[in-house]
User: Fold these one by one.
Assistant:
Number 1:
Amino acid sequence: MTQLLQKISKQKSDDALSKSGLLLNVGPFRTNIKIGFKNVREEFRQVYKNYPVEQEPAISNYHLNIYGKNLFRRWIRKQATIETLMNDNFIPLPAELGMVSVEMGLNWQIAISCRNFVLFHAGVVEKNGVGIIMPAMSGSGKSTLSAGLAYDGWRFLADEFGMLDNASGQLVPYPRPISLKNESIQVMKDWIGNDEPFSRVYEGTPKGRICYLSPPAQSIEHMGQKVQPKAIILPVFNKNAVPEIKPITKTMAFFRLVMSSANYGEMGEAAFKAISKVVDECAVCEIHYSSLEQGIALVNEFVADNIGN
């Protein structure tokens, strides 16, 4: 039996998070999460309030424990240590950044162990049955673009890890909170015009200022619905860019997907065949833009001209 986290009493969820663990469902995975710090538990409840959690004992795919190693690190100079039971060796962060530790631990588990799906460092969205993969390096603006599309009528499937089912060729939703960094935080606050779906801003993290944006509730509600990929769009953000849709070859799209994959080497031939099939069946392009509004307009334009939905 599942229930949205926000529907569970604060006392009950706090007890679970601080003791035996809370079973969180995101996409195809269930994680048992334990958090030893009250402030981090409160922030976790805010960020994940629209996500389903298990009310009965159930098998979990992953385990995540955020804790202080000793009394000194639990109560005086509080420090959040990450334990995933997966050969982890994270540098502890101050407990004030404990929510960042939660997200780091969840990312690590998928990156190091997921072998049943091809993983892409990519934004993934869907609208009217059109799935779009937007692979990009960190700093390219793909998180902001994915978030902007999610709050402009597209269904959000993923930001950190796009997932491709190599058996069916479909995209598997994994709609975790969107990690916004530095300038992109204010860009999205201006775009949405409402601070409610945002976490507080975490200063002084290894990646600068970070804020977590909860996807629209509808994206979480439909996270069990796979979609067929129809387009591969390579986003390139530049403050001085002239908005442009640039054609690219299928070969370039293939290599960009391979470069963005976290487990291509481990999956080998299965990943090669799955990516080849996706590229063969998708419309491909590169977009250059200097604002979120331009990026969204170019995505919509490319889809309308090349896919027709």
Note: The two ends are 36 Å apart (CA to CA).
Number 2:
Amino acid sequence: MTGSPERTAHVERVTNETKVIVDLDLDGSGRADIETGVGMFNHLLTAFAHHSLIDLTVATDGDLEIDEHHTVEDTMLVLGEAIDEALGSRAGLTRYGNAMIPMDEALATVAVDYGGRPYVVADVPFRADSIGELSTQLIEHGLEAFARTARVTLHATASGRNDHHVAEATFKALARATRQAVSRDPRRDGIPSTKGSL
């Protein structure tokens, strides 16, 4: 590969429901500054940054007086958009990644393809309706929003008795799979597809 251009992005989304600002550096060290107003969601995004080695700043001001749905959905949309922007043409990309992450009794597996085709298959069941202030329904919904704008195919499965562990293991597995997939392949100069384009 020639040169090492910065793979960074700054993305803002402002609607009547939320204001989201995301800054990231794909080639960072995992630094995180996350504030969404939803404690468990902050925790999951911090884990994602730490284990993906993506430097990530997220500032979300959402309509939490209604519920946390728009906050989670829009944050994940903007996070995905920022990754898509930072990847640029995706030339020289490893493209694929997978990870299996245990957390006590929980086990999560995530496989990703950052080849430009958004698709999600998720089997991440929970026992309770929420983890703190975060609805467990929004874990899968957040993954769908992320995949749509990151233009990633994402398969996730998880199991466990503790919902906190299941959710955290899933985000850590997504992080490790993403870390692998978005890394530069030193043996590839062009687009990682036999089609010649993504």
Note: The chain has a mean pLDDT of 94.
Number 3:
Amino acid sequence: MQPSATVFSQITSALFPAEFSRCTEQFPTTRPTRGLTSYDQFLALCFGQLTYRESLRDVVACLKARGPSLYHLGFRGQLSRTNLA
């Protein structure tokens, strides 16, 4: 159990998932997503950008290393490289 919120969750706390989903409904994608919501994909790509990851494989490996705390970071779906691509 974590005593305080992680830095990443503090940064993303300014984002409102309801507002984000409203924006994604306004601008739909051409294909449906597989396994991840658009908010989870956005969080994963933000995590990769903030931690200077160079590839999707690197982003997924780093996030899977933080497995028990993914829920506290804001992720609700199952992460894989295929889902992010």
Note: The chain is about 55% helix and 0% strand.
Number 4:
Amino acid sequence: MKENRLAFLLCLGVFGTLTILAAVFYQERIINLDMAFQALLILKSGSLEIQSGRFGAAVTQIWPWAAQAIGLPLKGVLMAYSLGHVLWPAILALFCWRIGQWRWSLAIGLVATLMTTHTFYWLSEMPAGLVFLCAVFSWMHAKGSFDAFRWWEWPLWLGALVTAFYFHPLVLYAHTFLCLFFLLEKNKARAWAWMHLAALGVFAALAFLKYKVLKLDWYDAAAIKRQEAFGKLWPNWFDIESNRVFLKWCVADYWLLWGVLAATVVYYAWKKQWARGVLVLGWPLGFVLLVNVPFYEAVGQQFYMENLYLPLAVFASIPLVFDVLRDQTKNDHLARSGAVVLGVLFGLSLFRIGQTHQPWSDKLAWEQGFLKETAKRTNRKIVLSEKQAPMDKLKMSWGSPFEFLILSSLSNPDSARCLIIHESPERFDSLLTRPRLFFGAFKNYPFEALPKAYFNFQDTSRYVRW
């Protein structure tokens, strides 16, 4: 089938390019905040390190875990971690293609690139969860109805939905959109509707169980606390700083996504498909408010906020692939211009991702420079305050001890260094004379607790304040 081959070639180009970028910029991606912290924990424990109950993260953590299990050096572990975040959606796109769901392969490619900018360098569970959700729907659509399920596929389907839910809390809104979108599809059998209603019900039950029955993780509890802003700010939800900042980001980075959404709304108006038009127009705008109102003071950095906005890529990609680019004269064919449109979208998105490396490379360069600057000091264990560091480059200070440790050990485990930047450096004053202690942002570790194969500390001098 022509479309099947075309989808394969487009995805091959997209994920091939992303793989190259992930290899070239593996240090920017992994020696960075959450990934540096999680990489250290994986190396320390020799097992997966799931945070905040988001066990879907196992699909990306399995790569560095396997690398350390077979004895690869630190560079190999970091490279595996970086590549794993690209190989995961690539594998899912291939899965969709193999079961004949070429549209879902293209959708995964768009979800992975259409909005991704800084989140290519600051990694989280959200992107992995969104593409997995797409793969689950692809499998459901290949089946067509529950009548085609074999007995062993029922627990597999339920387990897949539970896993998708526990990648990230906001996957819930992408899932709800997909269910509503396909429920509005015309000329489908009743069994099609029941399948999507059941999927919607599973997520609703999981949300009730997590937020009303089970005890919340501290991170999710803090997010729920932020929701009080809706009552506090009503009726001024639109006149807030976070909306103004978001508009600036849209002009600078996310204009392509909003262009796709605008074109899709025009398409539905032209076709007089009002229900889908209202959904595609209203759902993204409502979702932006859902994110922006709790962060009304615009306190989040762009990379963090972008991660929360990523479901917007689902809201834009699915209508484009399944409706706008459909050949109207043939039921399941790609319009002639569709390949060109997709090629342009992929090309522009990949170019934007590549260009965005600069601030992350600058951050890495400063840390490398500071390690070099302090390499010959008598006391090379250093505690700095945030006022003594270029926080515009570093984004956040809490990741600094893990970043410095991994970066210093990259060439040789014997060169492992202990440095930390903290907003309250005085909290470490009583520990400065503990020469065999690694200062961390959340917990301090004796040198013996960290694997010598990767971090063989040679410096036994005391810590000093910079």
Note: Residues 186 and 273 are 10 Å apart (CA to CA).
